[in-house]
Amino acid sequence: MAPRFIDRLYHAWNVFNDKESSEPPGTFMSYGEVTTFRPDRIRTFNSNERSIVTSIYARMSIDVASIDIRHVRLDENERYVETIQSGLNNCLTLEANIDQPGRQFKQTIAWSLFDKGVIAIVPIDTSLNPKVTGSYDINTMRVGEILRWFPRHVRVAVYNDRTGLIEEVNVPKDMVAIVENPLYEVMNQPNSTLQRLIRKLAILDAVDEASSSGKLDLIIQLPYVIKSDARRQQAEQRRTDIEMQLKGSKYGIAYTDGTEKITQLNRPTENNLLAQIEYLTGMLFGQLGLTKGIFDGTASEAEMLNYHNRTIEPVLAAITQAMKRRFLTKTARAQLQSIEYFRDPFKLVPVSAIAEIADKFTRNEIATANEIRAIVGWKPHGDPKADKLENSNMPVEKRGSIDESGGAIANGQT
Fold first, then answer.
1. Cβ atoms < 10 Å from Cβ of 203
2. Max avg pLDDT among 178-182, 190-194, 235-239
C-alpha cells in the first residue's frame, strides 16, 4: 500500500533542516577531531615531494589501481569460475572503508608501497575476532605504515576513523598482509638508483635557491691596505655605504670612487650535476621499465606490454599473494578460493581492431555476442542467441554433427 501523504511529510528529511547539520558558525558538535586536510591521506617523504619521483609514483600507482583484484573461486585447473560476494571482495571492488572506495584503496596501497618500501594491509572491522578464529570476514581495511618489527608482531601506524587520529597498534603478523615492494632494491635501498637521484635533485634545488637568493656577492677592492683597526673600520663603513645606496635606490644603482674596483662572484660555473641527473633518470626509467611515451600517452603496444609485465605485474602479484596468505585460511584455499588480479586486455586495443577481434572471437566460439558487447560498453541484447557460444556465420541446418557410431550427420542425412 502506498504511504499516505501525511506519512511522507512526517518522514521527509532535508540536510539543511537537520539540527546537527545547521549549527551556527564557529560551533562544533562532538564529531571528533577537526582538521583542515584529509587526515587519512598517506604523506610522502619530504625529499620525494619536491622531485620528479611523485610523478613516477602517481603514474605507477594509477596503473596498479586500474587492475581489478577480486575474491574468486577457481576450478581444479586454477581457472576462474566465479566471484565470491564477500566482505573482502567488497573492500577490493567497492568500498574499503568509510573514506576510500576500492580503486582509491588500491592506489593508496601502491603509492605507500613505492614510498615506504614495506606496508601492512590491516583489517579494521571484522565479523569475528581474528585472534580467536580464522573464519572471519573483513568488512573494512586500511593501509598502515610499519614502525617497528617484532618476532611475531609489528607495530603499525594506521588511521582510526572513530577518533580521526593516526594511532599506533601492535598486531600479530598473521593478521595483517605485509607487502614488500618487489622493486625495493631499485627504489627504496639507501644507495639505490632512485635514492641517488633524489639526493642529486636536492643538491640541484639548493644550488638554484642559492643562485636566485638576491645576493650580489661583490668584492670591493679599496685603494689602501687594510691592516690596522682604523682601516678595517673605514672599509666596513664603505661597505655599509654601498649597501645602503643599493637598498635605498629605486633601480638598485650605487656609485664608487674612481680608485675602487668591484668584482662580482655569482657567475654561473660549469658542473656536471645536470648530466648526472639525466644519466640517473635514464637508468631509473630503464630499471623500472618506463619510457617517455608511457607518461605522455604515446607508448606503443610493445612498450606498454613490457611496462605491465616488468613493473605492474610484480607489484600486483606481491599484493595479491600477501592478502591470499593472510586473509584466506587453509580451508578456504582448499575450497579453491583465491584472490586474483584481472587485467582487461582490450583497454589498449584501438576501435579499428575491435571489429576484427569480435569477429574472430565469436566465429571461433571463444566469446558470446553479449560478452563482446560488454567489452564495447553496450548493454546485453535480449535475444537468447546472444548468450550462446556458436558461430552465427554458419547456418544451424548446415552445421554437421557426429553420431554415436562416429558417422557425420548433416541436414538429417548420414
1. 14
2. 178-182
φ and ψ at residue 97, rounded to 5 degrees:
-160, -175
Q: Are 368 and 361 in contact (CB under 8 A)?
A: no
Angle 10-11-16 from CA coordinates, rounded to 5°: 100
Alpha helices in 117-160 (DSSP H): none
| Segments making up each domain of the chain, as ranges | 44-206+297-348, 350-414
The one-letter code for the residue type at 64 is V
Do residues 93 and 68 make contact, with C-beta atoms less than 8 angstroms apart?
yes
**Cell numbers describing residue 137:** 570476514
- 3-state SS class at 392: coil
Instruction: Return d(Cα 148, Cα 340) in angstroms, integer.
Output: 30
Instruction: Write out the DSSP string of 215-262.
Output: ---EEEE-SS---SHHHHHHHHHHHHHHHHHHHHSSS------TT-EE
User: Cβ–Cβ contacts within 10 Å for residue 42, how many?
Assistant: 15
Residue 36 CB coordination number (10 Å): 5
CB-CB neighbours of 148 under 10 Å: 11
Q: DSSP assignment of 72-109, as one string?
A: EEE-TTS-EEEE--SHHHHHHHTBSSSS-BHHHHHHHH
Specify whether the CB–CB gap between 142 and 159 falls below 8 A: yes
Q: What is the pLDDT of residues 381-405, one digit of tens each?
A: 888 888 888 887 776 654 455 444 4
